[in-house]
Amino acid sequence: MKNALRAATALALVTGAAQADTITIATVNNGDMIRMQGLTEDFTAKTGHEVEWVTLEENVLRQRVTTDITTKGGQFDIMTIGMYETPIWGANGWLVPLDDLSAEYDVDDILPAMRGGLSHDGTLYAAPFYGESSMIMYRTDLFEAAGVEMPDSPTWEFIRDAAAKITDRDNEIYGICLRGKAGWGEGGAFITAMSNSFGARWFDEDWNAQFDTAAWNDTLTFFNDMMQESGPAGFSTNGFNENLSLFQQGKCGMWIDATVAASFVTNPNDSEVADKVGFALAPHKDGIEKNGNWLWAWALGIPAGTQNVDAAKQFIEWATSKDYIELVASKEGWANVPPGARTSLYENPNYMEVPFAKMTLDSILSADPNNPTVDPVPYVGVQFAAIPEFAGIATEVSQEFSAVYAGQQSVEEALEKAQAITTDAMEAAGY
Amino acid sequence: MARSVTNQRKALNTALAWAVGLLIFFPILWTILTSFKTEAQAIASPPIFLNFDWTLENYAVVQERSNYMRFLWNSVIIAGGSTLLGVIIAVPAAWSMAFVPSRRTKDILMWMLSTKMLPAVGVLYPIYLIFIRLGILDTRIGLVVVIMLINLPIIVWMLYTYFKEIPGEILEAARMDGATLKEEIIYVLTPMAVPGIASTILLNIILAWNEAFWTLNLTAAKAAPLTAFIASYSSPEGLFYAKLSAASTMAIAPILILGWFSQKQLVRGLTFGAVK
Questions:
Q1: ipTM of the complex
Q2: Alpha-carbon gap, residue A9 to A2, rounded angstroms
């Protein structure tokens, strides 16, 4: 009887240890994430855990997971979140700390900029699935025809001159395509990153709004003038997809945007200019060392309160591991592996043969979320300030800026309104 | 002469009606056409209307990536269930308002309608918390109840309007013949109001089928209907317009077919009592 009891207990322990769970993962719809969904069978084969995917458009996902995590709804075991949410949610205790990942995972291999941006007080709260910065993608053939040579790290003045030389409106070729669309993650992200390279900042060290400074006036005036001269018509409503579409159809001389776009514009199946694309660091202003590039990561975090912490951690270790990168490379080629998360990827000679690999790494390394601006700031984040109020404020501010691009108001009027919007919101929030 | 003018006007009206019809239908037509293009053709400028290499690749990709039948079944249950439940509640409510009105009936009707004026997001958190407490997040029953509640004012209003057109004397005669209240509603009122009830049901199935705010916010992996299926193909970072169009076409196809076959009843019901 005793032996039977022992055997039953042992069996229960064994089956308990190997218990297969079903985890629910909320994620965004983009190429890398869809690829991951397609490879889930590999995870299930290795661990026995099943995965259910909830794929949503980025803004819908953000609203959906925010509602769930703030109410402890418990609908998801893993959430795909960005560099903006992670430190805020980590500080609030809404995420499970990822401080006990296995030795094989090699957490020290995560690029320092990514690890820093996804941590709070030195604790990692989400593991980067892929990381990105922004850089210049330009048409080598148009530059050659115009007799212009792109330096590795150009100035904004150079970019403006080159854009004017390339522009050929009769043939629908625009010197430069940039985001003008309202939204903190669209045009707001671009102009904020650009403002860093003009010596501007959102807040001073006492959280006072800084839109009444000459640096912001210079940023917005320069952007608007350059785009009116050499940008496509209606750029005030162009975001990532609109510019990608224009560039792939050969209508942009330059496009400064997310480094992940490099794989799209060099893909001959989708892009008419796949073999005519060069890359350079995002511009800086003459005399200022900060470049106008941002830093972002889509990362996997575990909401506090989930019942499947162990299975969720196993999934995160699988999806953000070196082995996963090898798996994608073996099935889809090195150009399609998730970039920008691990140091070892950029030490791999196979990957470094990918034309945009080095510039992506250089761009990521040149962005510093802890010191994003020329003058000191109290916030972390390059194209955002990692405070809960920022998304709302920046969306409103970017709407005012888009109105400038559409010719509905002057730069001065927009900055005056931006100053008022930000000051009011920060005061109301108790800063 | 008079006849020729009338014919000319008729032709003009017909042409105008077709033009308006095509204008309204064009976005749907464009979505369907885009679903048969490649991603590169979908974003071509100038846009390609018909002269492209038709492909079923997008449908194949969508089928491979998503469990369409699960989303479809959830949509059927949620749209059908919420409409059925709504009608069961609304018929007696509309009966009492139409045939036994009180001094406050008009106010109650207006109050019911006013709930439609509240932005849905204003009650998202309270409803979400109630759903957590009741354990009905990401369940079809939860969605059936919440969508029924959202559409209930419209169902009551529509039925009230149809019932008002039915002479009360007929119901009185039934009562004189000894019909109970239940028999009066089921055997006398309902058969006379069938066109109105049918169009109310059809309209509410369409409204429930297309409802996106609550179905996206209260579901995850289990109860998500076709609105979530469409949302999974939308992306601000990547060109997925052809696949999004294929997913949209698959999502609207059932309701489009239902609308096409029932348009006569729908129009008859919606214009019921419009011309006296």
A1: 0.84
A2: 11
- A22-28 and A78-81 beta bridge pairing: parallel
**Residue at A172 is within a domain:** yes
Residue B111 lies in a domain: yes
Q: Based on the fold, state whether residues A125 and A162 are members of the same structural domain.
A: no
Q: Would B215 be classed as within a structural domain?
A: yes
Do A413 and A264 lie in a common domain? yes
pTM for the model: 0.87
User: Residue A186 CB: number of other CB atoms within 10 A?
Assistant: 23
Number of CB pairs, chain A paired with chain B, less than 8 A apart: 96
Read off the CATH number of the domain in which B178 is found: 1.10.3720.10
pLDDT in tens, B17-26: 999 999 999 9
Q: Is A254 helix (H, G, I), strand (E, B) or coil?
A: strand
B81 φ, ψ to 5°? -65, -45
- Flag if B237 and A240 touch (Cβ within 8 Å): yes
Contacts of A270 in chain B (CB under 8 A): 39-40, 239
Query: Of B217, B232, B236, which is closest to A55 when you measure between CB atoms?
Result: B232
Nearest CA of chain A to the CA of B158: how many Å? 33
Nearest by CB: B236 against A38, A58, A249: A58
Tokens 């800026």: give the residue: A401
CB atoms within 10 A of CB A52: 14
Per the CB < 8 A criterion, the answer to whether A254 and A234 are in contact is: no
> ∠ CA A94-B217-A92 to the nearest 5 degrees?
10
On chain A, the residues whose CB falls within 8 A of the CB of B137 are 73, 75
Contact between A67 and B239 using a beta-carbon 8 Å cutoff: no
Q: Which residues of B touch A63 (CB under 8 A)?
A: 217
Residues of B in contact with A244 (CB under 8 A): 238-239
Asked if A35 and A106 sit in the same domain, the reply is yes
Concatenating the DSSP letter of every residue in A145-176 gives HHT----SS-BHHHHHHHHHHH-BGGGTBEEE
C-beta atoms of B220 and A239 within 8 A: no
First to last CA, chain A: 69
For B136, the domain range is: 66-232
The answer to whether residues A141 and A78 belong to one domain is no
State the CB neighbour count (10 A cutoff) for residue B49. 9
- For the stretch A357-397, pLDDT in tens is 999 999 999 998 889 999 999 999 999 999 999 999 999 99
